[in-house]
Automatic annotation (TrEMBL):
Lineage of source species: Bacteria, Pseudomonadati, Pseudomonadota, Betaproteobacteria, Burkholderiales
Protein name, entry field: Choline dehydrogenase-like flavoprotein
Family label: Belongs to the GMC oxidoreductase family.
GO molecular function: flavin adenine dinucleotide binding; oxidoreductase activity, acting on CH-OH group of donors
UniProt keywords, alphabetically: FAD, Flavoprotein, Oxidoreductase
Alphabetized SUPFAM superfamilies for the sequence: FAD/NAD(P)-binding domain
Domain 4Fe-4S ferredoxin-type, chain residue ranges per copy: 145-175
Pfam families per record: GMC_oxred_C, GMC_oxred_N
Length: 429
């Protein structure tokens, strides 16, 4: 039996944190769920080649911004959670409370279930420790960050977080997809949804390209979880959204400097950091694999630092950027505003102060890049408080619905939104 002739209660488009979470809740409630993923499902190998195939394919996982910026995302089972830094920032409760949305119950349930805690000292590497000590000496309230990592499976001196953990130490949305499938959900990878089908103004299924062929699959409930770039594109193709959707992307620069008395370069990134929500600036240690570090150094012409990876401290400066730019049918375009530039400059100055306190020399910074596109189908604009679009039966559950720029990793927020949406749909369905 083909999928087009099968009967489903719900189709979830995308297997990132939002899609995986809502699919699991619906499957738990007994719904017949189809999960469609554009990427593949090969086991994570922790290699640069595999990471590039999932997150650096131009036009699919990587998009060029203006101002020499690269926007990246994960096109694979589990979405960007497969290749992120496993940092679990709590949802910005006030953003959602303004729309009558309470994520506290979902957050409490997820905290009881998932590995959500700061790393033990044994897994905080020497570079992160040096940065933490220097930040505190400079009067900055630097603290360990909650990580979605199973300490018993994590390995000190490992650098594979960024490439996709092959040891099962880092939690990803693949875990929830696996649970949904165990509960009866059907997963089909290599499937790119081109548009939502409508009957009488209601969602009735999707058109999907799989194996080079277009097919239609029907269900009375469709949840788009294609991300801050993917979901607005599908809505536009379905004549349910604007051609150009503004968005935020959480721009980042890496500020780096070398020390003489550390021989490292392999540790869990973002073990600790600092955040000023009012200013919209966040800093954290960011030890990167050697090829990524060397790409940054080459990018800005610092070939003199190419072989200093094992001695180089790196601090991530991330900001809350203004919603602007456009997600178009085949591109994403965004420029930094004056406010964005000012926030990056403030964060860079703080990072340089910390590196100076750490005894670092030869300090330089990367060009800016970004990895959290969202806000393109915002609550209160593109969807209502239950994440439903103007078409009954069609919902969106990914970073695109976050109502305001935030500037922190959205994974835990999306898991909460997915859990809440899945429970809502199970009640009303």
């Amino acid at each position: 039996m083909t999928l087009s002739s099968s009967s489903f209660d719900a189709i979830v488009v995308g297997t990132g944190p939002g899609g995986a979470s809502v699919a699991r809740e619906l499957a738990r409630a007994g719904s017949r769920v189809l999960l469609l993923e554009q990427g593949g499902a090969a086991p994570l190998a922790g290699t640069v080649t595999q990471m590039a195939s999932m997150a650096a394919v131009p036009g699919r996982g990587a998009f060029i911004h203006r101002d020499a910026s690269l926007l990246v995302g994960g096109t694979t089972l589990g979405g960007s959670s497969a290749v992120n830094f496993a940092t679990a920032a709590a949802p910005p409760a006030a953003y959602f409370a303004a729309y009558g949305i309470d994520l506290a119950p979902s957050l409490a349930a997820l905290r009881a279930e998932l590995p959500l805690a700061p790393l033990p000292d044994t897994l905080v590497g020497p570079m992160a420790t040096r940065i933490m000590t220097a930040a505190r000496a400079a009067g900055i309230d630097w603290k360990k960050l909650d990580k979605m990592i199973r300490p018993a499976l994590c390995r000190s001196g490992c650098w594979r977080c960024t490439y996709g953990c092959p040891y099962g130490a880092k939690w990803s949305a693949r875990d929830f997809v696996e649970q949904a499938v165990e509960l009866g959900a059907v997963l089909q990878t290599g499937s790119r949804v081109t548009r939502v089908l409508l009957e009488g103004g209601r969602a009735s299924g999707v058109e999907v390209k799989h194996g080079g062929q277009l097919q239609t699959i029907h269900a009375p409930l469709v949840i788009l979880s294609g991300g801050g770039i993917g979901s607005p594109r599908i809505l536009h193709a379905s004549r349910l959204g604007p051609r150009d959707a503004p968005f935020f992307s959480d721009p980042v620069v890496a500020v780096m400097g070398s020390v003489a008395d550390i021989d490292g370069g392999a540790e869990v990134p973002m073990a600790a950091g600092w955040h000023d929500p009012k200013a919209g600036i966040a800093l954290a240690d960011l030890t990167l694999p050697r090829p990524m570090y060397q790409a940054f150094a080459t990018q800005v012409g610092r070939v003199d630092r190419l072989f200093a990876h094992r001695r180089t401290l790196c601090i991530m400066v991330k900001i809350r950027d203004d919603i602007s730019g456009r997600v178009g049918p085949r591109w994403a375009d965004k420029r930094l505003s004056d406010g964005d530039r000012a926030r990056l400059q403030t964060g860079e100055r703080l990072a340089r102060t910390i590196l100076q306190a750490a005894g670092a020399r030869h300090v330089f910074k990367s060009w800016h890049f970004a990895a959290h596109p969202g806000g393109s189908v915002r609550i209160g604009a593109g969807v209502d408080a239950n994440l439903q679009t103007k078409a009954p039966g069609l919902y969106v559950c990914d970073a695109s619905v976050i109502p305001q720029p935030w500037g922190l990793p959205p994974t835990l927020t999306l898991l909460c939104l997915g859990k809440r949406l899945g429970q809502h749909l199970a009640r009303v369905g």
